[in-house]
Amino acid sequence: MGIITIEELPARLTGGKTLAGLDLGDKTIGVAVSDQRFSFAHPRPVIMRRKFSLDAAVLLAMLQKENAGAVVIGLPINMDGSEGPRAQKSRAFVRNMAQISDLPFVLWDERLSTVAAERTLIEMDFSRRKRAGKIDSAAAAFILQGVLDRLQSLHASARTEPDPPSVV
Protein backbone atom coordinates (compact mmCIF):
# COMPACT_ATOMS: atom_id res chain seq x y z
CA MET A 1 0.00 0.00 0.00
CA GLY A 2 2.66 2.52 0.94
CA ILE A 3 2.33 5.91 2.59
CA ILE A 4 -0.99 7.59 3.38
CA THR A 5 -1.87 10.79 5.23
CA ILE A 6 -3.23 10.95 8.75
CA GLU A 7 -6.55 12.15 7.32
CA GLU A 8 -6.85 8.86 5.40
CA LEU A 9 -6.34 6.73 8.52
CA PRO A 10 -9.93 6.52 9.83
CA ALA A 11 -11.12 4.77 6.67
CA ARG A 12 -8.43 2.10 7.23
CA LEU A 13 -9.28 1.51 10.88
CA THR A 14 -12.72 -0.07 10.78
CA GLY A 15 -13.97 -3.43 11.94
CA GLY A 16 -12.07 -3.65 15.22
CA LYS A 17 -8.69 -2.79 13.72
CA THR A 18 -5.95 -1.21 15.82
CA LEU A 19 -3.20 1.23 14.91
CA ALA A 20 0.46 0.29 15.43
CA GLY A 21 3.39 2.62 16.01
CA LEU A 22 7.05 1.93 15.24
CA ASP A 23 10.29 3.51 16.35
CA LEU A 24 13.09 2.23 14.10
CA GLY A 25 16.48 1.95 15.67
CA ASP A 26 19.66 0.46 14.29
CA LYS A 27 19.49 -2.51 16.68
CA THR A 28 15.80 -2.70 17.60
CA ILE A 29 12.32 -1.82 16.40
CA GLY A 30 10.16 -0.34 19.11
CA VAL A 31 6.50 -1.31 18.79
CA ALA A 32 3.31 0.06 20.32
CA VAL A 33 -0.33 -0.71 19.56
CA SER A 34 -3.50 1.26 20.16
CA ASP A 35 -6.64 0.02 21.80
CA GLN A 36 -9.67 -0.43 19.51
CA ARG A 37 -11.10 2.94 20.55
CA PHE A 38 -7.86 4.68 19.48
CA SER A 39 -7.40 6.34 22.85
CA PHE A 40 -4.22 4.85 24.26
CA ALA A 41 -0.89 3.57 22.97
CA HIS A 42 0.41 0.41 24.62
CA PRO A 43 4.11 -0.53 24.31
CA ARG A 44 4.93 -4.04 23.10
CA PRO A 45 8.22 -5.95 23.28
CA VAL A 46 10.94 -4.67 20.97
CA ILE A 47 11.99 -6.58 17.90
CA MET A 48 15.72 -7.23 17.81
CA ARG A 49 16.95 -6.34 14.33
CA ARG A 50 18.88 -8.88 12.30
CA LYS A 51 18.15 -8.47 8.60
CA PHE A 52 15.17 -6.96 6.85
CA SER A 53 13.45 -10.19 5.76
CA LEU A 54 13.56 -11.63 9.29
CA ASP A 55 12.58 -8.33 10.92
CA ALA A 56 9.66 -7.92 8.51
CA ALA A 57 8.39 -11.46 9.14
CA VAL A 58 8.42 -10.96 12.93
CA LEU A 59 6.82 -7.51 12.60
CA LEU A 60 4.08 -8.66 10.22
CA ALA A 61 3.22 -11.60 12.49
CA MET A 62 2.98 -9.22 15.46
CA LEU A 63 0.84 -6.74 13.51
CA GLN A 64 -1.50 -9.51 12.39
CA LYS A 65 -1.83 -10.79 15.96
CA GLU A 66 -2.62 -7.24 17.12
CA ASN A 67 -5.16 -6.81 14.27
CA ALA A 68 -3.40 -3.67 13.01
CA GLY A 69 -5.12 -1.86 10.16
CA ALA A 70 -2.32 0.67 9.64
CA VAL A 71 1.13 1.53 10.94
CA VAL A 72 2.60 4.84 12.07
CA ILE A 73 6.34 5.05 11.74
CA GLY A 74 8.44 7.71 13.40
CA LEU A 75 10.26 9.90 10.90
CA PRO A 76 13.42 11.26 12.55
CA ILE A 77 13.45 14.79 11.22
CA ASN A 78 16.32 17.08 12.23
CA MET A 79 15.57 19.99 14.53
CA ASP A 80 15.90 22.39 11.58
CA GLY A 81 13.19 20.47 9.69
CA SER A 82 15.54 18.76 7.25
CA GLU A 83 15.75 15.02 6.69
CA GLY A 84 19.02 13.22 7.22
CA PRO A 85 20.22 9.63 6.80
CA ARG A 86 17.99 8.26 9.56
CA ALA A 87 14.88 9.68 7.89
CA GLN A 88 16.02 8.15 4.61
CA LYS A 89 16.37 4.77 6.36
CA SER A 90 12.80 5.08 7.68
CA ARG A 91 11.47 5.89 4.21
CA ALA A 92 13.40 2.95 2.75
CA PHE A 93 11.93 0.66 5.42
CA VAL A 94 8.41 1.74 4.44
CA ARG A 95 9.18 1.23 0.72
CA ASN A 96 10.44 -2.28 1.45
CA MET A 97 7.45 -3.10 3.66
CA ALA A 98 5.06 -1.87 0.95
CA GLN A 99 6.43 -4.55 -1.36
CA ILE A 100 5.43 -7.35 1.01
CA SER A 101 2.39 -5.96 2.85
CA ASP A 102 -0.85 -4.16 2.03
CA LEU A 103 -0.77 -2.26 5.32
CA PRO A 104 -0.75 1.52 4.90
CA PHE A 105 1.96 3.55 6.65
CA VAL A 106 1.81 7.07 8.04
CA LEU A 107 5.05 8.97 8.57
CA TRP A 108 5.03 11.00 11.79
CA ASP A 109 7.56 13.59 12.93
CA GLU A 110 9.22 11.95 15.90
CA ARG A 111 11.47 14.77 17.05
CA LEU A 112 12.24 14.36 20.74
CA SER A 113 10.08 11.24 21.19
CA THR A 114 13.01 9.22 22.54
CA VAL A 115 13.95 12.07 24.88
CA ALA A 116 10.37 12.25 26.18
CA ALA A 117 10.21 8.47 26.58
CA GLU A 118 13.49 8.40 28.50
CA ARG A 119 12.34 11.19 30.83
CA THR A 120 9.15 9.28 31.56
CA LEU A 121 11.06 6.07 32.30
CA ILE A 122 13.41 8.01 34.60
CA GLU A 123 10.42 9.51 36.41
CA MET A 124 9.08 5.98 36.82
CA ASP A 125 12.41 5.13 38.51
CA PHE A 126 13.58 2.58 35.94
CA SER A 127 17.27 1.75 36.24
CA ARG A 128 19.55 2.61 33.33
CA ARG A 129 19.69 -1.11 32.40
CA LYS A 130 15.89 -1.51 32.44
CA ARG A 131 15.45 1.73 30.47
CA ALA A 132 17.71 0.41 27.71
CA GLY A 133 15.36 -2.52 27.12
CA LYS A 134 12.21 -0.42 27.10
CA ILE A 135 13.20 2.88 25.49
CA ASP A 136 12.38 2.00 21.88
CA SER A 137 8.91 0.67 22.66
CA ALA A 138 8.29 3.65 24.95
CA ALA A 139 9.32 5.96 22.08
CA ALA A 140 6.99 4.04 19.75
CA ALA A 141 4.18 4.59 22.27
CA PHE A 142 4.93 8.35 22.33
CA ILE A 143 4.86 8.47 18.53
CA LEU A 144 1.62 6.50 18.39
CA GLN A 145 -0.01 8.54 21.17
CA GLY A 146 0.75 11.72 19.24
CA VAL A 147 -1.10 10.31 16.24
CA LEU A 148 -4.00 9.09 18.38
CA ASP A 149 -4.32 12.55 19.94
CA ARG A 150 -4.25 14.13 16.47
CA LEU A 151 -6.96 11.73 15.26
CA GLN A 152 -9.12 12.66 18.26
CA SER A 153 -8.56 16.33 17.46
CA LEU A 154 -9.49 15.84 13.80
CA HIS A 155 -12.61 13.93 14.82
CA ALA A 156 -13.63 16.64 17.31
CA SER A 157 -13.12 19.46 14.81
CA ALA A 158 -15.15 17.58 12.18
CA ARG A 159 -18.07 17.37 14.65
CA THR A 160 -17.94 21.06 15.55
CA GLU A 161 -17.60 22.53 12.07
CA PRO A 162 -20.84 24.17 11.03
CA ASP A 163 -22.68 22.77 8.06
CA PRO A 164 -22.23 24.77 4.89
CA PRO A 165 -25.05 27.21 4.25
CA SER A 166 -27.82 25.79 2.15
CA VAL A 167 -28.71 27.39 -1.13
CA VAL A 168 -32.36 28.28 -1.43
Biggest sheet statistics: 6 strands, mixed
Number of helices: 5
Number of strands: 6
Radius of gyration: 17 Å
Poorly predicted ranges: none
Protein name: Putative pre-16S rRNA nuclease
Keywords: Cytoplasm, Hydrolase, Nuclease, Ribosome biogenesis
Family: Belongs to the YqgF HJR family.
EC number: 3.1.-.-
Can you put this structure into words, describing what you see?
The mean pLDDT is 85. The protein has helices spanning 9-12, 52-65, 85-98, 113-123, 128-160; strands spanning 2-3, 18-24, 28-34, 41-48, 68-75, 104-109. The longest helix has 33 residues, at 128-160. The chain is globular, with a radius of gyration of 17 Å. Strands 1-6-5-2-3-4 form a six-stranded mixed beta sheet, with helices on both faces. It contains five helices and six strands; from the N terminus they run βαβββαβαβαα. Helix 4 packs across helix 5.
Protein traits:
168 residues; alpha/beta; 45% helix; six-stranded mixed β-sheet; 5 helices
What is the gist of this entry?
Belongs to the YqgF HJR family. It is built from 5 helices and 6 strands. By secondary structure, it is α/β, with parallel strands linked by helices.
Q: How is the secondary structure organized here?
A:
Elements: E1 2-3, H1 9-12, E2 18-24, E3 28-34, E4 41-48, H2 52-65, E5 68-75, H3 85-98, E6 104-109, H4 113-123, H5 128-160
Parallel strand pairs: 1-6, 2-5, 5-6
Antiparallel strand pairs: 2-3, 3-4
Family: Belongs to the YqgF HJR family.
InterPro entries: RNaseH-like_sf, YqgF, YqgF/RNaseH-like_dom, YqgF/RNaseH-like_dom_sf
Organism: Mesorhizobium cantuariense
